[in-house]
Amino acid sequence: MATDLRLPTDKIVRPDKDRFLNEDNPFEGMMSRFDQAAELLDLEPGLYKVLRNPEKQIIISVPVVLDSGEVEVYTGYRVLYNTSRGPAKGGIRFDEHVTLEEVKALAAWMTWKCAVVNLPFGGAKGGVICDPLKMSVGELERLTRRYTSGIMNTLGPDSDVPAPDVNTNERVMAWVMDTYSMHMRHTVTSVVTGKPVEMGGSLGRREATGRGCMIVTKEALKHLGMDVKGTTVAVQGFGNVGSVAAQLLAREGCKIQGISDRTGAYYNKNGIDIDAAIKHVKEHKSLDGFKGGDAIANADLLTLDVDVLLPAALENVITSKNADKIRAKIICEGANGPTTANADAILDQKGVFVIPDILANAGGVTVSYFEWVQDRGGYFWTEDVVNDRLRDIMRTSFADVLRLATTHKVNMRTAAYMLSISRVATVHRLRGVYA
Ligand code: NAD
After folding, report:
1. Whose C-alpha lies nearest to ligand 1, atom 16?
2. What is the pLDDT of residues 11-37, one digit of tens each?
3. Gap from CA of 312 to ligand 1 centroid (Å)
């Protein structure tokens, strides 16, 4: 019989429920959304406590011999937030701004994201505090391999499966896979996803997150009775997610009026030629010097008068300071955590339809799941099969969240949290508390 996690006199005690949140702390922001959904679900207090805490937090020192011969010691993290539904899944980030709070928030988001699209995975995230842009390829390889060996005990196709995230890529995943395989004494492709296709990666993985954003944006337009053709769009961030989403939306007939990256933002009323922008980035490594639009201030991109805003760069860019200036009717959150919890309330009041990150950018982890399945089966799918299955999962998940939002009269974010938390909670109830 499933464990009863509700004590007769128990009540959920939410910490500082009405306090104005620290907008800079992504873990607090994630938790406030979790709390709201947990209350609406009337989650049992025992389970509430279980789901508010990460299962495992690993902090390691990562010594690396630099090219100069000196030794530098970096700090690395791996957080497994919840693995009740399956192996932990989540990327590895190399960045100078990585903190344990951020990694915890990202690991929790991965848990909810995998559940919202109903993948048999839990959630994790990893990070190393470093500036990869200042490191040589050799230094990066040594950092990756030492970090991998430091978290070796948690890694494995059945326990913890990393993927690329900010400043890590296919090459880094190849090093993780090789290091793990050397320790296991045989090749284990399914220990990471986002690998090169030549060594067990999946066709369609690179485009999957941007493709997922395009699919759910089209679903939102349909729901709001808006025509895809001629819909105007602004995209913040022109990396893996933003550039692919912009390209695919343009192919569907949208007019991409604004794009940006860390070097600047560009506006063109008649629509930016996205293929030309992608070519420019390939040749110049950034949008700097792009001639296909007028240069505008980076912050102004977010408040352009467009139908759809697609933030695909960073966390915490739509805050209580600029939310009231947003003019888009739809926000599709390509990035993780681009909107703060304080900004949510303002967007709600304005009637902006927000497709939350845990749904909007779940295309990436969905095709990561396909990659893991293909590696384990040793049989690889065509790109059309990958894209068709991705489309089906994104559409079904959008409809599931929308149904819940309509039934409970809540916004899409709260509905997405309710759906994912209830799925994780159901498995906890069935499994009980091991003693
Ligand atoms: P990326 O490094 O490929 O691209 C990031 C882009 O954002 C770059 O163009 C960069 O110049 C730009 N940028 C950085 N600071 C900016 C600023 N201040 N203003 C405007 N642009 C700025 O990264 P990515 O893989 O595209 O990831 C982007 C976001 O999407 C991150 O939040 C990531 O966690 C999230 N995400 C990525 C995936 C994936 O599969 N890649 C999946 C889910 C979520």
Report:
1. 262
2. 555 544 444 456 668 888 889 999 999
3. 5
